[in-house]
TrEMBL record, chain A:
Gene3D superfamilies: 3.30.420.40, 3.30.420.510. Its EC number is 2.7.1.33. Residues 1-11 have a biased composition (Basic and acidic residues). Homodimer. This is pantothenate kinase. Belongs to the type II pantothenate kinase family. Keywords: ATP-binding, Coenzyme A biosynthesis, Cytoplasm, Kinase, Nucleotide-binding, Phosphoprotein, Transferase. SUPFAM superfamilies: Actin-like ATPase domain. It comes from Salvelinus namaycush (Lake trout). Residues 1-72 are annotated as: Disordered.
UniProtKB/TrEMBL annotation, chain B:
SUPFAM superfamilies: Actin-like ATPase domain, AF1104-like. The keyword Manganese applies. InterPro entries: ARMT-1-like_metal-bd_sf, ARMT1-like_metal-bd, At2g17340_3_helix_bundle, ATPase_NBD, PanK_long, Type_II_PanK. This is 4'-phosphopantetheine phosphatase. Keywords: Acetylation, ATP-binding, Coenzyme A biosynthesis, Cytoplasm, Hydrolase, Manganese, Metal-binding, Nickel, Nitration, Nucleotide-binding, Phosphoprotein. The lineage of its organism: Eukaryota, Metazoa, Chordata, Craniata, Vertebrata. It is found in: Cytoplasm. It comes from Salvelinus namaycush. Residues 451-757 form the Damage-control phosphatase ARMT1-like metal-binding domain. It comes from the Eukaryota.
Length: 440, 784
């Protein structure tokens, strides 16, 4: 399952970055400088996310509109060579995005080295790589024009613990001979930098994960329209009528971005370049899976989720009604609310009467509700009403999404809206790819 | 949620449940008990009752001296009277003993017209029938949260040093907090099986602003599943031995080091239990328990901070069975709060946290008695004090765990308030040295009090020659006080910060407990008699001096008078061996100027200026001190046109002059001295009670009447006399008016510490900080 970042840690000082919504200071020195010391792309031609408002649609159309051959030629000179990758190495998962150009001219095809072709073919003709690598085909973005080239964007993930195998493959395929820049973010970009160089002769361009995350979110939301990238649950408090609905992230600021990976990071985003990490919690996806493995003996996120879907958490948790016989009216607590997560497990008889599925469900519910609760408090403290949840904890995890939608709505009395994005955990790697094409 | 469940002591399983209760130690004063309340948690029961205690008090009554004034008659007669004292009793015991305890109460409860017992706590319904059957009292259930808050307000208001900060590796783990004059607003985080977060704004206004389901029950329940360890205590024990880094995914596990740009260090937990998802290995119980403890403590700490920030509160108290005196959880919660607020908010804990529910339930039932309109004081003699439940228990404590814990609060006759002249009531600390933080000083004073015990016992017996069983009672007193001293040696934090004052007060409480209300009554009487005979002569010789000489002679006389102090061992030895130790001899004993602390010149300069409007004088000993030292000094002030308010103790402590005695003395002096007489008549000399019965002085707990007088008279000078009031306490007290602190150091250890010697003099004249002339900056300060 999921991914990176989310450190426990708190209210760090606003990172100082970009208090100024204006032009951020240029990021320093890319290590590679073969053909381009000037990446001064005209941002008007880039669909990367300029902040704001109604420009979104305009931006989208403009991307497919450039037609001047000249323009392309001029872009070409400053465009990095293929292959284009963006990588996000998290605590649990490595997320990789790969841009497959579909507008390759005959001329280009001839120039293209065999290596590059073979990589392209390998990645695009498979949906699974080795034992653990998976391409999320349903997320693939077709006919995307990016940096003057049109093609498909592929989304691939594999467990961080299999990174050595990946590096071995990169070495076997002589990836380093392509002289590409490998843009990487996530903690692993730092942790494994040496291994990349040592094992695969690859130099990483390390990028800040939160910068990449926000860039990726804003970009994907701006280029994806059908189905809408962003959605929410209508009638979250009514299970019968709770349905997924598209949402347009127009004028999204200020916005709370909650990234649930192994741990959780909560960012307050005020503009494209102005954000701060408000807080985080160590009770995240890694905690869910870790506890489930210990409690039920399961071994994968999917397995844990499957068990959770069949369990009943109220066997494990102590509810308000278990203590008060009903609602605790004095304080407006409904009887169904959880008073103590795992509270029933204090008692030996109850420990013996519950199933593994119940335990998985209770774990999922308590981790999810806790994230919801912290998020709600941060939203109140920061005075932000819109919350976007991302991260691979939410992958195929409708249970948690509905719970979050419910919790946001119920406890805020309808003030807070929980929003979700289809590309859940890939935004960091998309941000890294964008950094390759248009260094900020 | 608040439903609580506590540690179940191992011993309770093997112990016979039909134990015989030691009746003179617990459930005391049941005869007159009324107004019961009970708080039954998951494993501990807390019982409260109100009772009246018959108590001996010493009274003095003036003889009619106008009729026959024979030389041999004493000045006044001393009598012992019985008084009723209102006392609250709180007892905590394991649920296993509940039946035994109820039987015991039933058997000892006589002549009560109580019909109802107030009940709270998660277990109240479970034992409802049993209570009703045994005690024949109707169980009346009260809301848990309301009880909790009422109890919390009560202890914060009435018990100094109730709240503390926990510092794991410090010399003293417990840093007791000053009671802020205004206890509101605050946040109470109650960590029971779940968490309730309550914002308290006034006595009757509070709101549950939030909570969390991840609480003590989560630690216990998940812990039991993960480690197969059933008991809460054992889980904490496991946790204290574990390493969380093998289970948790740290920032450095992801980054290889720190995440520098966000300032997240490598050792921070990125994902709790993050490693147990990928590593194919067994984890130790200890490590999992530790990881779980961190996860839950951090989570609660984070939420607490978010709520504190949202409501803009900085006082955050933690309670509930998850905390209840467990160093392990107090530490992890403290750590979390420090981390999340960067030290802006301190996690506060309460000494009597376990009693809050029952105190609150009791108060609910006693509303018609208006308990909140009185001031209450913790009775050190009848209260067990805070016990550390650290894994490495000391022997005394192990013996006690699993049995009974008690808290007794006496209703004070006077309502106590701050001295209005304190510069900053919220930062005022009465005590000069915190013995809980100063190990050397602690050793010395504990030894000193132990050494002095024989003498105290002897004097106690001597004070009641007509009562044959006095000797036996005195032995019981000895035993009790010795036991307290031993407890304090192991647990200096038992009653808040350990100070010379608390040691003295504990001794007074123990003496009272065994009906020795005033062991010095006869000595005081004799000395007052003797000194009165010299009063006129002393005044006359002073009047013969020049103004300049007289000012110095008055100060010198006051200091010499202060040498007469039975509270100080060095002096009591001399006095006991040589009762004729005279005033002149005392003057010779005094240190020559320059004194150890000497600002006499500034005082003298000040005297040349306009008179003070009104002086408040906290007096010390009876006899020579008050009569030949203080009165001439007061007389001079009166002559200058300064009104004087003499504040003396409400009840006896050592040989300190009590308000009662001082009234008689003043009458007698007035009869001899027209200056005093007219001052009394014209209300320029007023006597007030301090509200205290301690040889020391806490300026934040003074009689409300005194505070009123001080305000009305526009008091602009405060004089504090004696070692107990001016050195052990208030040496550093800052006042908003001029002050004079005078004492003779009659303890060689203390003299040594201060860089002086026995009978060194402290004369400290101070201006309020804003008016202070620069010349006063050279006052030597006390090394701490």
């Amino acid at each position: 399952m999921e991914e990176r970042n989310g450190h426990h840690g708190e209210n760090e000082p606003e990172t100082g970055e970009n208090e100024d919504a204006a032009e951020p200071p240029p990021k320093q020195s890319r290590s590679r400088s073969d053909e381009s010391n000037n990446f001064g792309l005209d941002s008007n031609n880039m669909e990367t996310t300029t902040a704001g408002g109604s420009a979104t649609d305009e931006r989208r159309t403009s991307t497919s509109n450039y037609s001047s051959r000249q323009r392309i030629d001029s872009l070409r000179k400053i465009r990095p060579p293929f292959p284009w990758f963006g990588m996000d190495i998290g605590g649990t998962l490595v997320k990789l995005v790969y841009f497959e150009p579909k507008d390759i001219t005959a001329e280009e095809e001839q120039e293209e080295v065999e290596n590059l072709k073979s990589i392209r073919r390998y990645l695009t003709s498979n949906i699974a790589y080795g034992k653990t690598g998976i391409r999320d085909v349903h997320l693939e973005m077709k006919d995307l024009t990016i940096c003057g080239r049109t093609g498909n964007l592929h989304f691939i993930r594999f467990p961080t613990q299999d990174l050595p195998a990946f590096l071995q493959m990169a070495r076997n395929k002589h990836f380093s001979s392509l002289h590409t820049t490998l843009c990487a973010t996530g903690g692993g970009a730092y942790k494994f930098e040496f291994d990349f160089r040592q094992m695969a002769d690859l130099q990483l361009l390390k990028l800040d994960e939160l910068d990449c995350l926000i860039r990726g979110v804003l970009y994907i939301d701006s280029v994806v329209s059908n189905p809408s990238e962003c959605y929410y649950y209508e009638n979250p408090t009514d299970p019968e009528h709770c349905v997924q609905k598209p949402f347009t992230l127009e004028n999204p600021y200020p916005l709370l971005l909650v990234n649930i990976g192994s741990g959780v990071s909560i960012l307050a985003v005020y503009s494209k370049n102005n954000y701060k990490r408000v807080t985080g919690t160590s009770l995240g996806g890694g905690t869910f899976l870790g506890l489930c493995c210990l409690l039920t003996g399961c071994s994968s996120f999917e397995e844990a989720l499957e068990m959770a879907s069949q369990g009943e958490s109220s066997h494990v948790d102590k509810l308000v009604r278990d203590i008060y016989g009903g609602d605790y009216e004095r304080f407006g607590l409904p009887g169904w609310a959880v008073a103590s997560s795992f509270g029933n497990m204090v008692c030996k008889e109850k420990r013996e009467s519950i199933s593994k599925e119940d335990l998985a469900r209770a774990t999922l519910v308590s981790i999810t509700n806790n994230i919801g609760s912290i998020t709600r408090m941060v939203a109140l403290n920061e005075n932000i009403e819109r919350v976007v949840f991302v991260g691979n904890f939410l992958r195929v995890n409708t249970l948690s999404m509905k719970l979050l939608a419910y919790a946001m709505d119920y406890w805020s009395k309808g003030q807070l809206k929980a929003l979700f994005l289809r590309h859940e955990g890939y935004f960091g790697s998309v941000g890294a790819l964008l950094e390759l094409l248009d260094p900020s | 949620m608040a439903a609580e469940s506590e540690r179940v002591d191992r011993s309770s399983h093997s112990m016979d449940k039909s134990i015989t209760l030691p009746p003179n130690e617990i459930f005391r004063n049941l005869e007159n008990a009324k107004r019961f309340a009970i708080d039954i948690g998951g494993s501990l029961t807390k019982l409260a009752y109100y009772s009246t205690v018959q108590h001996k008090v010493a009274k003095v009554r003036s003889f009619d001296h106008t009729a026959k004034d024979t030389e041999d008659d004493p000045l006044y007669e001393i009598s012992m009277q019985e008084e009723m004292l209102a006392r609250l009793h709180f007892i905590k015991f394991e649920n296993a003993y509940i039946e035994t305890c109820l039987d015991f109460i039933k058997d000892h409860l006589v002549n009560t017209d109580t019909k109802v017992i107030k009940a709270t706590g998660g277990g109240a319904h479970k034992f409802k029938d049993l209570i009703e059957k045994k005690l024949k009292l109707r169980v009346d259930k009260e809301d848990e949260m309301t009880c909790l808050i009422k109890g919390c307000n009560f202890v914060l208001r009435n018990i100094p040093h109730e709240a503390f900060v926990y510092v794991k590796h410090a010399d003293s783990e417990f840093r007791f907090q000053n009671t802020h004059p205004d206890i509101f607003p605050y946040l109470l985080i109650n960590i029971g099986s779940g968490v309730s977060i309550i914002k308290v704004e006034s006595e009757d206004t509070f709101e549950r602003v939030g909570g969390s389901s991840i609480g003590g029950g989560t630690f216990w329940g998940l812990g039991a599943l993960l480690t197969k360890t059933k008991r809460f205590d054992e889980l904490l024990q496991l946790a204290s031995k574990g390493q969380h880094t093998s289970v948790d995914m740290l920032v450095k596990d992801i980054y290889g080091g720190s995440y520098g740009s966000l300032g997240l260090t490598g050792d921070l937990i990125a994902s709790s239990f993050g490693k147990s998802a990928t590593a194919d290995k067994e984890f130790s119980k200890e490590d999992m328990a530790k990881s779980l403890l961190h996860m839950i403590s951090n989570d609660i700490g984070q939420l607490a901070c978010l709520y504190a920030r949202l409501h803009n509160l900085t006082r955050v108290y933690f309670g509930g069975f998850f905390i209840r005196g467990h160093p392990v959880t107090m530490h992890t919660i403290t750590y979390s709060i420090n981390f999340f607020t960067k030290g802006e908010v301190q996690a506060l804990f309460l000494r009597h946290e376990g009693y809050l529910g029952t105190i609150g339930a009791f108060l609910k039932g006693a509303e018609e008695d208006n308990p909140n309109q009185y001031s209450w004081g913790e009775n050190y003699a009848g209260s067990s004090g805070l016990m550390s439940t650290s894994p490495d228990l000391n022997p005394m404590q192990r013996a006690r765990s699993g049995t009974f814990d008690m808290l007794e609060m006496d209703r004070l006759e006077r309502q106590l308030v701050n001295l209005p002249l304190l510069q900053d009531p919220s930062s005022y600390i009465p005590d000069t040295v915190d013995l809980s933080e100063d190990a050397l000083a602690r050793e010395y004073w504990l030894y000193c009090f132990e050494e002095a015990l024989d003498g105290v016992v002897k004097r106690a017996v001597a004070s009641q020659p007509d009562l044959p069983e006095a000797a036996e009672r005195a032995e019981k007193f000895r035993h009790k006080y010795l036991h307290k001293l031993q407890t304090l040696r192991h647990q200096p934090f038992a009653y808040g910060s350990l100070t010379v004052r608390s040691l003295l007060d504990t001794r007074e409480h123990c003496l009272n407990e065994f009906n020795f209300p005033d062991p010095y009554s006869k000595i005081k009487q004799r000395e007052n008699d003797m000194a009165l005979k010299y009063f006129q002569k002393a005044v006359k010789s002073l009047e013969e001096l020049s103004w300049e000489q007289r000012q110095f002679a008055l100060v010198r006389g006051l200091l010499a008078g202060n040498v007469f102090d039975w509270g100080a061992k060095a002096v009591s030895d001399v006095l006991e061996s040589n009762p004729e130790f005279g005033f002149e001899q005392a003057k010779r004993q005094l240190e020559e100027r320059p004194w150890l602390v000497d600002t006499y010149d500034q005082w003298f300069e000040r005297l040349k200026g306009p008179p003070h409007k009104c002086a408040l004088f906290f007096v010390d000993n009876s006899g020579i001190d008050i009569i030949l030292g203080v009165f001439p000094f007061v007389r001079e002030l009166l002559c200058r046109g300064t009104e004087v308010v003499l504040a003396s103790n409400s009840s006896p402590a050592l040989n300190d002059v009590t308000n009662n005695e001082l009234q008689i003395l003043t009458e007698r002096i007035a009869a001899m001295d027209p200056v005093i007489q007219s001052a009394v008549k014209e209300d320029r000399l007023t006597l007030v009670q301090s509200g205290s019965s301690s040889p020391c002085l806490d300026l934040s707990r003074l009689d409300k009447v005194l505070a009123g007088v001080v305000r009305e008279r526009h008091t602009d000078l405060v004089i504090i006399e004696g070692m107990g009031r001016a050195i052990h306490t208030n040496y550093y007290a800052l006042l908003s008016c001029e002050s004079l602190k005078m004492a003779v150091i009659k303890n060689s250890w203390l003299a040594d510490r201060l860089g002086g010697k026995l009978f060194s003099v402290v004369f400290k004249y101070e201006m309020p900080p804003n008016k202070k002339p620069t010349t006063l900056d050279h006052v030597p300060v006390m090394p701490s």
